[in-house]
Inverse folding.
């Protein structure tokens, strides 16, 4: 069983993310570019994929100027790099289930790199569908509780806007939505000027795998190696860390 509180882990992860902002912003820039091209528009009001990525970028403290610059560049540059989206599934160290979302301009390089990370960490890649059945696609929003946040009022308003689950803890609030209702719930938060710590469409594990502290270290090292890979955009797993 993990010896750390969930909020402590969230803050530790956030601090690590803050220390790697350049890498995070680079990946978000790539995601914004792909969203513009896939949706055929730089207007988030008619490009829902782009709207999702903008929410994620803002939750990661990406400045609005950077976001707008990435969008305008993607709109105006028809010769920009074409990225291919690939999803890998497999089992990481300690038997955790993992989904890795990749955006790459070289799928052979990406496949070799991902396979190597899994193998060296004691895991192995699986076939398509080998673990995805254990995950549900959901909108996820994490909010830190403070004096501005009235949890009861926020719960009623977000449920009216389509939130499926609203979990209140001592220091934070987690909101889960159907992907189609993610935007309407985000608009409630934006209207109240409530800052989100995390906000994106993600794969949520239906059953979490508990780990010992020693196993947590091994799994975190594996996840860090995936995050450091330039082709990797998102990593979803069922480890309870």
């Amino acid at each position: 069983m993990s010896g750390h509180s969930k909020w402590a882990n969230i803050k530790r992860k956030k601090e690590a993310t803050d220390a790697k902002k350049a890498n995070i912003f680079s990946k978000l820039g790539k995601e914004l570019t792909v969203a513009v091209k896939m949706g055929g528009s730089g207007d988030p009001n008619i490009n829902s994929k782009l709207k999702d990525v903008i929410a994620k970028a803002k939750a990661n403290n990406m400045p609005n100027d950077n976001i707008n610059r990435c969008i305008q560049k993607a709109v105006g540059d028809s010769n920009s790099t074409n990225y291919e989206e690939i999803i890998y599934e497999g089992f990481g160290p300690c038997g955790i289930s993992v989904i890795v979302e990749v955006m790459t301009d070289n799928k052979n390089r990406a496949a070799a790199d991902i396979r190597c990370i899994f193998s060296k960490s004691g895991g192995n890649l699986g076939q398509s569908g080998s673990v995805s059945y254990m995950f549900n696609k959901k909108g996820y929003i994490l909010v830190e509780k403070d004096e501005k946040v009235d949890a009861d009022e926020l719960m009623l308003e977000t449920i009216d806007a389509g939130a499926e689950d609203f979990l209140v803890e001592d220091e934070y609030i987690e909101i889960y939505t159907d992907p189609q209702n993610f935007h309407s719930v985000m608009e409630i938060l934006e209207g109240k000027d409530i800052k989100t710590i995390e906000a994106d469409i993600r794969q949520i594990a239906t059953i979490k795998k508990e780990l010992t502290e020693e196993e947590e270290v091994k799994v975190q090292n594996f996840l860090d190696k995936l995050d450091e890979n330039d082709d990797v955009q998102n990593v979803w797993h069922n480890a309870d860390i």
